[in-house]
Amino acid sequence: MEDSGSIFEESEKTFIELSNSQRLQIINALKNCSMNLTLLAKHLGITMQEAHRNFNRLMDAGIVSRDSNGSYSLTTFGNTITTQIPSINFLSKNKHYFSDHYFGNLPMKFIQRIGSLDDSKFIQGLVAVIEEIKEMYRHSNEYIYGMIPQVPLDLIEVATKIVMERKIKFNYILPKNAVIPKKGADFLNEINYPELLKSGLVERKMIDDVKVSVVLNEKKALLMFPSIKGETDMNGAFSNTIDRENNKLFHEWCLDYFRYSWLDSKPFDHSKIREV
Hints:
19% strand, 13 strands, Arc Repressor Mutant, subunit A, single chain, 276 residues
């Protein structure tokens, strides 16, 4: 029988080589193009001796290879490893947050892509989160998608006014027993909300429970995880705006998750909503 510890020996070697900031910088620098020793040392601001020593270690680990011209590039193994680093980086940067938050009922296929959230900022405080969502609504020109455990009145007002003015798509998912302010229901009646539903501009669905919440438009996304008590924590959120080529992954992750949840949701049942 194989020693249970031996199955991790190769992984241990890989982690040892990755547990060095200079080697991680080298791997990151080689993601898009190959480099020779001189160019890479200059690019990273390290000595030739340091670059040579780290390259030798990365080659021994099978992460980097060198061609006949002396240029270094990532191997298939090395390229694949780079796709896993953002996951470790995101969790490492936010380990304090995840000491009392978890992924809820998030499907494994989204947890495996958690590195897509690495290029994000954290918004602290309920008021700041609500204001961020309202600002997102105001800058929506194509669609607004949302799945949150409750709908504050000020969010209802901002979203519906934008939908009416710009004729944009508004899809949202609420959990059973979601709390809706009674004044919010009155407001919806005043603006003839049923017409928005009839026109198809607004579509709504219902799900048993909302753990991981997401709000997004065509350019920005906001994501909230549940506390260890099991409830979505709206006192903090991860957010990202598409403003350059390399940070579309966060938005793509949130959009995919919303679409997955939308397909998994049931028809909206207003009798299961609580008005207070």
